[in-house]
Specification:
The chain is α+β, with helices and mostly antiparallel strands and 82 residues long. The chain has helices at residues 2-11, 17-28, 57-64; strands at residues 32-36, 43-47. Strands 1-2 form a two-stranded antiparallel ribbon. The radius of gyration is 14 Å and the shape is globular.
Length: 82
Amino acid sequence: MVRRNQGLLETLGLDTAMSRAIGESASRLGVDSKISGAGLGGIVLAFVEKESGGESLPSVLTELGARYMVCVGREVGTKRQE
């Protein structure tokens, strides 16, 4: 769903060269990402699982010249209705 929503935002022209570069780099690492904000990708959210290979994302972001911060959250999910 994240990739689909990001594709729709790109189709609408709401991304920037930097947000595209970040998204493409994340995708190569197997990490889903999408822009968020008030248009033109004020922020890129990347959703990294512990053992996904995404731990190298910060070094890639540094190489791109992007500013970033790491937020650690707990698992998100839904309970099955029986």
